[in-house]
Design brief:
318 residues, 11 helices, 44% helix, two-stranded parallel ribbon, alpha/beta
């Protein structure tokens, strides 16, 4: 009995010692998407903060495949020693569980939540030729044209698809989904050209076109107005009570990563988020900071919301 206690005590001291020395080698930050996108950009911001604080290189490792699932799974399989981080995103973490029955991981079980960096609301936008200026007028028009108004997204089962279907069900309209394999840039051009009627797009992507008059913004998918488009009212304030939808980026680590190490990373990034609050707001994003159980609860609610949206859109879990 005494020997077992001694062994456990020695093990605890060893873990504590390693956490105090951490980090003693470069960190690997896996981004399950290509370079240049918002997830990659925020990961590189976080990598710079960690490098400055720890004096260790943080290698950003882009792994764009399978909608982010493969890169995300690679983090889950990594040793829980504090040297592998994940650039978490709704796609593989909260949308994929709603449409895939064979993921190689369980989002809530197989990762250690670290901190939410930022989240970005979207804007409901229409082509200027569509004769509506607010949510009420848009819904009224759509109800006179059931199955005739169409919207673009990066594809079936994406954040844009499920969030727009959720919106359509809430307001009781029948609209047509047009998926674009070319991604956001392609259907933005199509929307401005009038080939599609509307879309729900992230503020930082679409704000310049709204200011230029190439698109008309009808409402923001947050509970408060965005400093990036302060003149645009929220859908919540226009009668769609409680409706909100965000894209977001967070840091996660392999399961069972020591709490002391997680705490070190949380501390560095929480300070960075606070220091760069104005930068995030200027980009049309809401600074994060949610960590631990609070972040877990946020992710759990997101999974439940997308599952409901997927079933409502008739997308089976395959």
């Amino acid at each position: 009995m005494r020997r077992a206690f001694v062994v456990l005590a020695a093990l605890a001291c060893s873990v504590a010692s390693r956490a105090q020395e951490y980090p003693i080698k470069p960190l690997r930050y896996i981004v399950p998407f290509g370079a240049g996108g918002p997830t990659d950009t925020q990961a590189r911001w976080a990598a710079q903060k960690l490098n400055a604080a720890f004096g260790q290189t943080v290698i950003v490792d882009n792994r764009p495949a399978a909608g982010g699932v493969l890169g995300t799974a690679a983090v889950m399989k990594s040793p829980p020693d504090g040297y592998t981080l994940l650039a978490g995103n709704p796609g593989p973490l909260t949308v994929a569980p709603a449409i895939s029955a064979n993921l190689p991981y369980d989002t809530l079980r197989d990762f250690t939540p670290v901190i939410l960096i930022a989240k970005s609301a979207s804007v409901l936008v229409v082509h200027p030729a569509i004769p509506v200026k607010n949510l009420k007028e848009f819904v009224a028009l759509a109800k006179t044209r059931p199955g005739r108004l169409n919207y673009g997204t990066p594809g079936v089962g994406t954040v844009g698809h499920l969030s727009t279907e959720s919106f359509a069900r809430r307001v009781g309209i029948d609209v047509v989904h047009v998926p674009y394999k070319g991604g956001v840039s392609q259907y933005t051009i199509e929307l401005m050209s009038g080939y599609i009627d509307f879309a729900t797009m992230q503020i930082f992507n679409i704000a310049p076109f709204v200011r230029q008059g190439k698109l008309r913004a009808l409402g923001v998918t947050a509970l408060a107005r965005s400093p990036a488009l302060p003149e645009v009212e929220t859908l919540h304030a226009q009668g769609l009570t409680g409706f909100e939808n965000y894209n977001w980026n967070a840091v996660l680590m392999p399961p069972k990563t020591p709490a002391a190490i997680v705490g070190k990373i949380q501390g560095v990034l929480a300070a960075g988020i606070k220091e760069n609050r104005d930068m995030f707001i200027g980009q049309g994003q809401e600074p994060g900071g949610e960590a631990g159980e609070q972040l877990t609860n946020f992710i759990r609610a997101e999974i439940e919301r997308y599952e409901k949206a997927a079933r409502g859109a008739g997308i089976p879990r395959q």
